[in-house]
Amino acid sequence: MTGNPSISETVATYMTSLRTRKVHARETPTSACAITSDILEQLFDFNHLPENWNIKDYNPRSRLQKENLHQWGGPLARHALSAIYAITFLCLLRSDEVLKIRREYIEFNKNGVTLTLPFRKTHKDGGIQPFPIQALPEEEAHLCPVRALGEWMNASKIMTGYMFRKIVSGDWPSSQDIPMTSEQFLEMFRNNLLDLDIDPYPYGTHSFRRGGCQYLASQRRWTIRQICSWGGWSLEFSNLTIVRYLISWNDNPTERREDLFNPTRPPALKCYHCGRSCHCA
After folding, report:
1. Can you give the pTM of this predicted structure?
2. 40-91: per-residue pLDDT in tens?
3. Cβ atoms within 10 A of the Cβ of 166, count?
4. Which superkingdom, per the lineage (predicted)?
């Protein structure tokens, strides 16, 4: 048997029966809580504070010196995180796919960048559509992979090999051409959430893929077909994997139930492109 197992009827039947057994056993499946564009904007603002963003000369600290809660990472670590956040969120990529991006996968052009991955989890043999990403307006700088990549490359001076390497002593990326591990990324991401006094434990590396999916659906008003095409999901809709990314009990609701038919509810966030702020935009 060959092909994508995620669209196999046998696998779909097994997963359905597995969910049924878990329901009977009173087990509640829990997905990583989706990250929101609002939280990403808060992280962006905090990381871009001068004391967190400006590159400083290496200043070794004594092991006996008590560290501040927010000193888990230096400016270079925060530059790397900003780029990883934006790419993972907007391109609907898995964190390990982003961490293994190499310089040759990125092509800069006059409008932005084109990211071409040679393989993905569901595309082992290639045939992956490139991600043409244009620079976003200043109001959406916190979601812009073009800005974040440029800032990271300028700060890290990485021009070959893996773009996101393990952050080692002195807040510098490793000189060895080895990608950052998912474990280190998750630890830094959760520390970054603690900077904002946000409980980090509901969030995981999959929070960005889920959050980006919901952002494109609810804020960008993309259709399910567009999201599936962009994110690399099957368009056969036989197993509706996309639904698990759009809906989960532990996500923060975007609208209150009592406001769904309320004609006097406050306007939504103004769209930077069309200028509309009504909920039907």
Report:
1. 0.78
2. 999 999 999 999 999 877 665 555 554 566 678 899 999 999 999 999 999 9
3. 16
4. Eukaryota
